[in-house]
Amino acid sequence: MGSSAGHLTLTVLGSGTSVGVPTIGCDCKVCRSTDPRDQRLRPSVYIRYRGRGVLIDTTPDFRQQALRFGIDRLDAVLYTHAHADHILGLDDVRPFNYHQRGDIPIYATAETLAVIRRMFSYIFDGRESQSSRPRIRAELLEDRPLQLFGLDVIPVALPHGDGVSIGFRFGRLAYLTDHGPLPDAAKEKLQDLDVLFLDGLRHKPHPTHSTVEQALRHVEELRPKRAFLTHISHQLGHEETERNLPPHVRLAFDGLEVRVELPE
Q1: Pairing state of beta strands 104-108 and 136-140?
Q2: E strand map for 115-237
Q3: Would residue 88 count as lying in a domain?
Q4: What is the longest distance spanned by two Cα atoms in the chain?
Q5: How many separate domains does the chain show?
Q6: pLDDT at 46 over 70
Q7: Burial class (CB in 10 A: 0-12, 13-18, 19+), 175
Q8: 3-state SS of the chain: helix, strand, coil percent to 5?
Q9: Please, which pLDDT band fits residue 132 given cuts at 50, 70 and 90?
């Protein structure tokens, strides 16, 4: 793929499910665990390359995630889909508007943008307001590569129950979350990866997510150099689960950083 043109760094901001881990009111072993890798905020990642910062999903924990991991720049937000655990932190982009003195583009499918416009109508209605609101620019995400700060970002459509979740490929790294079996069209876009993040909710089957076993089959077929399971429930303890995974497959955890070289 030619000589290197710098690198990309992905930071996992949250590796948990829609309710996070520990889960409210639960007294299970994982929810009581003192291993910090078992403490999982809602699912999101932050990607840095070429002096830019790109966020995938604004979770209800976004403020906490930004403070915890020192995020001080936000150049774009990509949305996988419109479920609450992936969009409800949108209002917390306001400090980035103040510091950067400009709008922030958000990229999402028409279906996801429609939900965001409905849930956050005060951002878009144009009415006078005495309170501040996020300054964003809604951009339609289509089924073709997105040129983002000098890099082709490839959307990957994935089944998520009766709906669709969008994964994203940046060079030789891809981030997928909230998906079931991978369709052939997605597999074609996920070849020759150095790093693959994918859904690995739990062992028990789920109607809208991949199990650990299903994820391992995807990894075996796609053959990335390294893979990380994310969107992890409280039914999976980090240390115990990793003991039964192949060496090149690990569980993601909050704060994990992964670096890959960018193609020229």
Answers
A1: parallel
A2: 136-140, 146-148, 151-160, 163-170, 173-175, 195-199, 226-230
A3: yes
A4: 57
A5: 1
A6: yes
A7: buried
A8: 25, 30, 45
A9: confident
Say yes or no to pLDDT of 4 above 50. no
DSSP 8-class letter at 15:
-
Q: Are 23 and 52 in contact (CB under 8 A)?
A: no
Q: Which domain holds residue 209?
A: 4-259
**Which CATH number belongs to the domain containing residue 214 in this structure?**
3.60.15.10
3-state DSSP assignment of residue 180: coil
Mean per-residue pLDDT for 38-53? 98
DSSP letter assigned to residue 183? P
Residue 264 lies in a domain: no
Question: Starting at the edge strand that comes first in sequence, how are the strands of the sheet with 52-56 ordered?
Answer: 136-140, 104-108, 76-78, 52-56, 44-49, 4-14, 257-263
Q: Look at residue 60 and tell me if it is in a domain.
A: yes
- Confirm if 80 and 178 have CB atoms less than 8 A apart: yes
Pairing assessment for the beta strands 104-108 and 76-78 based on DSSP bridges: parallel
- Answer yes or no: is pLDDT of 206 > 70: yes
Q: Cα dist. 146→32, 51, 119, 176, 248 in Å? A: 42, 18, 25, 16, 29
